[in-house]
Every structure is written in structure tokens, then in C-alpha cells.
Design goal:
The chain is an alpha/beta fold. The protein has 5 helices and 11 strands, in the order βββββαββαββαβαβα. The protein has a 7-stranded parallel sheet with strand order 9-8-7-6-5-10-11. Strands 1-2 form a two-stranded antiparallel sheet. The N and C termini lie far apart (about 35 Å).
Length: about 240
């Protein structure tokens, strides 16, 4: 692979962390083109957060409440947002599991997240593809058993773990109100999926916690955002 390596691009402007880009598409990888600099496969990001803490952001009320409370930078943590989080926040990384939508494409173009990830090439022309079974890239156990979630935020948390985050806080997965996963019949499956991911990450020495006090998700231990903000580890530079 090194024969095709072209250079490096920053995870964030002027930040020391860089990910490799390639002049040619590495065999067997689904790449994203970064301007005229080259190709970036998912494997370029493995371990890049180097033990820092990070937040996976869903669109639930707890995310809105944190922003409304004045935490516009989310404590300077590395962040990965999903779907329409972009309406109010520009995360470092972005995951979209929705099918092609001109409205969503426009939102991505306007917010311009640095890196876009998806399980489908139909989501956006800039998307870096990843397999829907996280065992393929997170644990490298192959297609069996299936390690997957039903919501984009689950994949955001799994990707942050693959990127090397030590503690991953989940924000905006409240499963309240009119969310389609809030129905009593859907909650048990959500708990199973998140519990499965929590166990996998615990085996890797990583923590997965729920930052929403009112979340109906019971699989993850709850930690307040202020607690993570004061005790967490991050070397991410503050937003301008």
C-alpha cells in the first residue's frame, strides 16, 4: 500500500494528526476523493484519534439542549454527527445512512463536514464507504457474527472507536417523543444493539457512555456531559 501513498491531509486545519491519501485506489478499499489530493480509504483513519475522547451525535433533544445551554463547541471534543445534525452543528466527521436525498446533499454541501462516511455510495459523492457489518473493519472477524446497528449514531460510535477514541459519549440518542425507534416494541432491539457494541468496545479497552439523562436507552451507563467535559481527554484544538 505504501507504494501508492501520495501524502497526508489534516483531520482538522493546522492539527498535527494527518491521514494518508493515495495516488491510486488501494485494492479492495472503497475510497473518497479529497479534492485533487488523492484517495482516502477508511483504513487511513484507524487509530487516528490516539486515545482521545469523542462524542457521537444524534438528532435528539439532548443534543439540542447542550447547544442551547451554550456549549457550541461541545467541549472541544472530537465529534461525529449524523443525518440532520448539520442544521445546527458542523462535526469533525459525519455519517449518513439515509438514501439519496437532494435536500440532504444540499445540507452536506452547505455545512461542508471535513469527512463524510456512509454504507452506501448513493448518499453523497464525497462519502467514504464502510461495511454495514462492523466486524469487517472494527474487530476483523469477518461477516459472522453480524455486528450492526439500526441507526446512524450507532455507526458513528463504532467508527469513533475504530478511529481510536478512548471514551465515546453518545449524545442525542434519547428515543423519546416521535422518534421511530421510540416505540416500545423497538426499544429492546436498540438496547441489544448498543449493549453488543458496548461489550465489543470494553474488550478493546474503550468505554461507551450515554450523555443523555432522559434517554430511554438502558444498555449504556449514563454520564453527564459536564462530567465528561471536565474529566475527558482531548487534544483537539478549539473551534475558531
Amino acid at each position: 500500500m505504501n507504494d501508492d501513498r501520495e501524502g497526508f491531509v489534516p483531520l482538522y486545519p493546522e492539527h498535527p494528526i494527518r491521514v494518508p491519501v493515495f495516488e491510486k485506489v488501494p485494492r479492495g478499499m472503497d475510497p473518497m476523493v479529497v479534492g485533487d489530493q488523492g484517495w482516502v480509504p477508511l483504513s487511513s483513519f484507524e487509530g487516528c484519534l490516539d486515545g482521545n475522547d469523542a462524542i457521537a451525535i444524534g438528532t435528539g433533544p439532548s443534543f439540542e439542549a447542550i447547544l442551547d445551554a451554550g456549549y457550541r463547541d461541545l467541549g472541544d471534543f472530537w465529534t461525529m454527527g449524523v443525518n440532520r445534525v448539520l442544521r445546527r452543528f458542523r462535526p469533525d466527521f459525519y455519517v449518513c445512512a439515509e438514501s439519496r436525498s437532494d435536500d440532504l446533499w444540499k445540507l452536506i454541501d452547505e455545512a461542508d463536514p471535513t469527512f463524510v462516511f456512509s454504507t452506501s455510495v448513493a448518499v453523497h459523492r464525497r462519502a467514504i464507504r464502510f461495511h454495514s457489518n462492523a466486524n469487517v473493519w472494527l474487530t476483523r472477524k469477518g461477516n459472522v457474527p453480524n455486528l450492526a446497528g439500526a441507526m446512524s449514531t450507532w455507526y458513528a460510535a463504532a467508527l469513533l472507536a475504530y478511529f481510536g477514541a478512548k471514551t465515546i459519549g453518545v449524545l442525542g440518542v434519547d428515543l423519546t417523543g416521535h422518534h421511530h425507534f421510540s416505540h416500545p416494541s423497538a426499544l429492546p432491539s436498540q438496547d441489544r444493539q448498543w449493549e453488543m457494541l458496548r461489550r465489543v468496545l470494553a474488550g478493546r479497552g474503550q468505554k461507551l457512555v450515554n450523555l443523555s439523562e432522559d434517554s430511554l436507552l438502558t444498555a449504556l451507563p449514563k454520564v453527564s456531559f459536564d462530567n465528561l467535559r471536565h474529566r475527558g481527554r482531548t487534544t483537539r484544538p478549539p473551534m475558531a
